[in-house]
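Bench log, entry 3. Co-assembly request; chain sequences pasted below exactly as received.
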Amino acid sequence: MSAEQKSGITHEGDFYSEEALHEMHDSMLFIRRFEEKAGQLYGLKKIGGFCHLCNGQEAVCVGLESAADAKDYMMTSYRDHGHILARGTDPTAVMAELLGRAGGVVKGKGGSMHMFDIEKNFAGGNGIVGEQVPIGLGFGFSSWYKEDGRVTICIMGDGGINQGAVYESFNMAALWKLPIVFLVENNQYAMGTSLDRASAETQLYKRGISFKIPGMKIDGMDVLEFDKKMRQAIEHARSGKGPILVEANTYRYRGHSMSDPATYRTRAEVDEWRSGRDPIARLQNQMIAAGLSTEEAFKQKDKDIKKRVAAIAKEAEAQPEPDASELWTDIYSDPIEGAYPETGKVY
Amino acid sequence: MNKITYREALNQAMAEEMTRDDRVFLMGEEVAEYNGAYKVSQGLLDKFGPKRVIDTPITELGFAGLGVGASMTGLRPIIEFMTWNFAILALDQIVNAAAKMKYMSGGQYSCPMVFRGAGGSAARVGAQHSQSLENWMANVPGLKVVMPSNPADAKGLLKASIRDNDTVIFIENEINYGDVGPVPEGDYIIPLGKADIKRAGTDVTIVAHSRMTGFALEAAKVLAQQGIEAEVVDPRTIRPLDEDTIIASVVKTNCAVVVEEGWRFAGIGAEISARIMERAFDDLDSPVIRVTGKDVPMPYAANLELMALPSVADIVEAARVACGRA
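Structure output for the full assembly:
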């Protein structure tokens, strides 16, 4: 079959094959159902602590992954489940981490906010707002130093972008032309504070102007659009032109974290995003209109994914908690024998 | 053996390690074209070029984080803080990122890097530029804290710190930069976590680090004239602390004085005293005495500044009390 005969969707001149579209749809829907399951397990007190879900923001996670190379570095804040899943990390390990189990992606030592996968070039999972931005600067610096052709995608939220560390990083990234895409997931609220109450300049893509960092604003509720524009941003960084700042407009359907009932926004506002702009429904409708699938087929797929997520949760829950010896591992790479009463030796 | 300054010894350590390992780079304020605010990095830009010796804007949190990220990719950054006072701006990256990265990532990422610069009190620079922060750093699991007291230790410990696979907080002393001493050439490495007995003695143990080691040695001379033989133990590495060497000395002398420039409350002296109590209680003839900086912000006036710091006389007095010869 020749390329012209392949079925798919052309979005602003770019062709997405049926297979690629299904993959993106699967991935978004999987993240949605995974997060719902996490919310449920949190409600049952099986997941503890802080738990920040990304329902509604799936197009950013998946579009970004579609646009990036596997070798590219990525790091984000504590709203990290969707991103690490999109990177292709074993979802059972992610769920096990949420449950504090031995088979967790970081052996049960990190939890919801600290997901890492070095094999997938995913550097967290960072719990302090904006902290990952100077760290991302360091990854970008490393690629400049080693000339390894990688791009760092350093993700923050509309809350994080107000941290001073971000502007310190913008300055150095621009000064040394480091290959970094600074991606702001603007989900409109920093915890309970709306964007216009926290930012003097609400067009966040402009926040790099005084560092001569070009900005792009992308609809983060449209996975095809996000993928397409993100490719341009990544290409900009990879080509040696220096950093670029991307603002993805998106929305989280749930509260900031599981303990947040989100009373600071109206039901009407949430409904407007949910029913009018949902990224999964949008792609689904596009695919149905293009004759690539049917309502029934999507319903069946959803059932299958829910089943898969339930099985993953069951499998993760069945895992043991970390061994007690893990309390004392991974603190130092070069421990000094006998020098640490801290290692539990009682005198 | 060549006699060189403390600052030259540090310079030599960096130059040798940068020659040996091209993953090592030096970054900080004024480290390159200015040749270092305290001239510790003198000549390194000429030797290694602008890719490996990098001047930063005045942006401690940012470049500390840059070092953390770079170390996570396998590079070996040396991040210079002009002084440790400015590292307070970078504490999030040191404490929340570098120290915890290995644990939080289940062992996947580590941060093999050195944060270094001048610590302790300088001379007549006031409260914000004169303070000891080693107890803050040493409190954090995941960090190692190293403080050399003489030129040879400066070289051997810095080389070991650069080669170490963990995050090392390397605190130099501004007043010591010009000190001259014999320094072995070439690959001179002092393993971390090993204290050094700077002077052997039988009557009283004086534990002192960084600039206070010199004060303790001066005090020991005075004490010797009075017939008291003090043993001066320099931990060299604050964390991990070489408890065994300290305890062995106390078991021998049956009394101890712990000296530090920093504030008394929850200081290094408090930690060392507690450990002596835990392990050598029955060997003690008298309570451990702490000689510390006064519990005040550092004043500017020369007389007040002197009063705020421990003195040789303070150490002599404490040692005499400790061994019952006051």
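Chain A touches chain B through 52 residues (CB under 8 Å). Chain A has a mean pLDDT of 94.
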